[in-house]
Amino acid sequence: MNHFELQDGELYCEGVPLSRIAREVGTPVYVYSSATLERHFTVMRDALRGAGLSSEKWGEPLIAFAVKANSNVAVLKTLARLGAGADVVSEGEIRRALAAGVPPERIVFSGVGKTAGEIAFALETGVAELNVESEPELKLIDEVAQRLGKRAKIAIRINPDVEAGGHAKISTGKAENKFGVSFAEAERLYANASNAVGLSPVGVACHIGSQITDLAPMEAAFTKMRGMVERLRGQGLHVERLDLGGGLGVPYFNQPDPPGPADYAAMIGRVMAGLDIQFAFEPGRVIAANAGVLVAAVQHVNARPEGRRFLVLDAAMNDLLRPAMYDAYHDIRPVRPRDGAEVVYDVVGPVCETGDTFTRDRALAPMAAGDLLAFMSAGAYGAAMSSEYNSRLLVPEVLVRGDQYAVVRPRETYQDMLARERPAPWL
Ligand code: LLP
User: Fold this and answer.
1) Which partner from 116, 244, 303, 313 sits 20 to 30 angstroms from 225, CA to CA?
2) What is the share, in percent, of the chain residues with pLDDT greater than 70?
3) Domain count, the chain
4) Residues 24, 47: one domain?
5) Is the CB of 180 under 6 A from ligand 1?
6) Cα dist. 230→159, 161, 182, 222 in Å?
7) Residue 321 CA, closest ligand 1 atom number
């Protein structure tokens, strides 16, 4: 469910017409709904609660929002106020999570190439765990921790070698991917880590991919993860946390609905029944995707004599990369749908490459220059992946709550853009 609905013939975000935001803030602009963010988080939290994944000893599952999906501090704050933690992959993301008020003990640090500097920063911050992706990384964390006189809480990220489906660029759980270690290697590393001066192994982690719409591969992976916890404990090793990653998909358009948080939680409850451990999750997309839209304006309608009809927008691939990068489908809705038969358009941006195409052959209500449209489901991996390619200004972000809105990242200015650069002394 989301809070982007037509009211009196135009698209609103909660109680605010998108046309008002476009007029006052300009386009392109990302717009997020607080109510949707909150709802998605609480639905997930309640589903996991209902599946018996809490215990007196370990408390509630840790829901660490994947900051990479939407790293805007106001968005993070909205979730942190409900008790969300943060799954981070860089020092920058740790700093964002802290700025949003996420307590360090709810921050999980993932990623295959954490630098010594980032590891030191995470240890000084006191994050809940560093998810270790390889043996060389385990050694580096041990060294850094010893240098700082600390013991790093670590979880070993396991690559369960399952095929999660979805786009190859975002599938992570096969042995050929760069993420994590095998079960056999994890067992050896866990035992080594238990004897290392700078390490305190607290658990195991996995994350098999993103936009997963079939629970079967997750169930297979999670079943193996449970077995791993039991094997480690059987060897007398201490295991207190099981981090099952993120990856649950969302409906991007009118497809049969993918499994939702309730199905996901029920499956996990079944697989994990009776396992005494603290659970952690790293959802990103399922919380944020349908909580945001990218609003753009039509620059030109270019009807070519050869037959194609291009809708040239003021938004481009640098603002929303997913269609160019993953051939992703985003529903496109006119902000004030005009009457009349649908027209078939190719929707493109102004960037000078053919990849700057949001979609081809899309039937939409008739559009004219100046009209606004909204790319739906753009709240995850939208603004977070945007860039200044073609020296286009970074898009502003707006957070709506009821009938008010706030510009939570103003549009960049050309001064900002140019001020970052320096002349070389010989120029
Ligand atoms: N945990 C880890 C370790 C991850 O690598 C990711 C996402 C997540 C959690 C969150 O996954 P989610 O619940 O959002 O599926 N840019 C791509 C998606 C890349 C996902 C990368 N890792 C896209 O736009 O589709």
Assistant:
1) 116
2) 97
3) 2
4) no
5) no
6) 17, 19, 16, 12
7) 24
How far, in Å, is the centroid of ligand 1 from the Cα of 195?
A: 32
**pLDDT-above-90 percentage for the chain:** 93
- Kind and range of the H or E run holding 297: strand 292-303
Domain holding 200, by residue range, is 34-284
Cβ of 87 less than 6 Å from ligand 1:
yes
Rounded to whole angstroms, what are the CA distances from 308 to 188, 302, 337, 354, 362? 60, 8, 21, 14, 11
In a domain, 426, yes or no: no
Residue 275 and residue 303 in one domain: no
Concerning whether 206 is annotated as a catalytic residue, the answer is: no
Residue 319 lies in a domain: yes
Q: What are 242-271's pLDDT values in tens digits?
A: 999 999 999 887 666 789 999 999 999 999
Residues 6+ apart with CB under 8 A from 157: 110, 131, 132, 133, 179, 180, 181, 204, 205, 206, 207
Residue 207 Cβ inside 6 Å of ligand 1? The answer reads yes
Per-residue model confidence (pLDDT) at position 237: 98
From 277, 202, 191, 290, select the one nearest 248 (Cα to Cα).
Answer: 290
CATH number, domain with residue 124: 3.20.20.10
- Residue 357 shares a structural domain with residue 232: no
Is the CB of residue 323 less than 8 Å from the CB of residue 310?
A: no
Q: Nearest 5 degrees, angle CA 227-CA 231-CA 235?
A: 170
| SS3 (DSSP) at 249 | coil
Q: At a CB cut-off of 8 Å and minimum separation 6, what does 255 contact?
A: none
Annotated binding site for substrate: 285, 322, 326, 353, 381
Domain identity same for 388 and 408? yes
Q: Is residue 170 domain-shared with residue 181, that is, in the same domain?
A: yes
In 68-191, DSSP assigns E strands to: 85-88, 107-109, 129-132, 152-157
Peptide bond into 423 cis (omega under 30): no
**Least trusted range by pLDDT, from 139-148, 166-175, 268-277:** 166-175
